[in-house]
Amino acid sequence: MMLKSCALWTAFLLLTGCSQSAAEAQGGGGGIIDAINHTHRAINHFSINRQSGLDIIGPYQGGGGGCCFSMPAQWRPGMMVQVDWETGQGSSAGFPGFADREKYEAWRAKIHAQKRQHSKAVPLADYNGQDTCGITVHFLPCDEVKVTTSCYTYGSPAYPIKEPLRMTEPTVCPT
After folding, report:
1. Which CA distances in Å does 153 have to 6, 53, 102, 135, 141?
2. pTM of the entire structure?
């Protein structure tokens, strides 16, 4: 009986993990980790402060759904988040199948050669006096990144990040 109670309590804690983060219990906010990819490259994986965003995000798409991002109750000047991500090919175009091992290996090598690891500390905008709904990271051309904790949806007039979904990568990125 004791074992069954422990198992039920553990299941309850696991199921409620994303609905109330440690920060929320202390008066902060938190929620799901989402992303919007404004580039022609796929985002193979990403994380914010080492919390996974889960999904692969294709070019010019949104996704994510990782749990859980939490933040302190009060924003402070200089607050940053660490965004880590990998970019790669946006489709399986040119996939030769598995029958010809040599062609498959050449295709696979080409795909892996396109993968790039990125890491950037990104300022977290002031959220004092506002509802927070997790975090959304925007992957922009030239490996730029913006984040928001806004509860508004991308594209709504009150959403703070205004860049269009389909952005053109410049020939030369500023350094």
Report:
1. 39, 17, 46, 11, 21
2. 0.77
